[in-house]
Amino acid sequence: MTASDYLAALLLISGAVFFLAGTLGLLRFPDVYTRLHALTKADNVGLGLVVIGLAIQAESLAAVGKLLLIWLLVLLAGASVSYLVARGALHKGIRLWKR
Amino acid sequence: MQTFYFALALFLLLNLFAGMWRVLRGPSPADRMLAAQLFGTTAVAVLLLLAQASASPALRDVALLFALLAAVTAVAFVRRAWPEEGGERDGE
Predict the structure, then answer these.
(1) Rounded distance, CA B47 to CA A16, Å?
(2) What is the pLDDT of residue B92?
(3) Mutate which of B17, B39, B44, B62 to disrupt the A interface (most A C-beta within 10 Å)?
(4) B37 in contact with A at a CB cutoff of 8 Å?
(5) Has residue B6 been placed in a domain?
(6) Cis peptide bond N-terminal to B27, omega within 30
(7) Hey, are the CB atoms on B30 and A27 less than 8 Å from each other?
(8) B3-19 pLDDT tens trace
(9) Cα separations in angstroms, A11 against A14, A39, B20
(10) Cα(A68)–Cα(A61) distance, rounded to whole angstroms?
(11) Which residue range is the domain that position B24 belongs to?
(12) I want to staple A89 with a disulfide (CB 3.0 to 4.6 A). Which of A27, A59, A94, B49 is the partner?
């Protein structure tokens, strides 16, 4: 394994940790809004780290471009979707969680 | 390195499996939708890992499609499941 392999493995593992955190948050958090918070971490940072880790190993520049494009699309979609879901939940009258 | 990719893809798949619990339990439709949203992102990551591991770049296009479909699904859910949105009835 070369140095770039180790770097890629490190990035991929930290991305997987964020995915794990997102799943745990989705299972453990009490209401829609807090779950939204957990979800966007996995969406943005988790996938971002995985994409960067894979981009280091990718075979061509075009592949790197496509990886980044996928990440940008997920970023955009995640931001708009979490806004829409949170606003819809507020309109619907889902109460905010209070301890 | 290839084994590592496959192991990581398997780990993400197990994550996805654990997320099933939220889809089954709810309680509100929005919670189920959020779990489905996480599935979409995890599926994208799994597909990207598999594309690299098995050297089949076509899987990257599948991942792109998954990202696109996840976004459309969530927007459709918000529009259809909660139609009574305060005052802005455009076109209906």
Answers:
(1) 14
(2) 45
(3) B44
(4) yes
(5) yes
(6) yes
(7) no
(8) 888 999 999 999 888 88
(9) 5, 19, 26
(10) 11
(11) 2-81
(12) A94
A-to-B residue pairs, Cβ atoms closer than 8 angstroms:
128
Question: Is A30 in CB contact (< 8 Å) with chain B?
Answer: no
Determine, yes or no, domain membership for B86: no
Any domain includes B10: yes
pTM of the model: 0.86
Q: Which residues of A touch B86 (CB under 8 A)?
A: 91
A8 half-sphere exposure, CB direction, 13 A CA radius: 19
Q: Where are the domains of chain A?
A: 3-92
Number of domains in chain B: 1
Indicate if the pLDDT at residue B91 is higher than 60: no
Please tell me which of the candidates B21, B57, B84 has its beta carbon nearest to residue A27. Answer: B21
* Whether the predicted pLDDT of B71 surpasses 60: yes
Is any Cβ of chain B less than 8 angstroms from the Cβ of A55? no
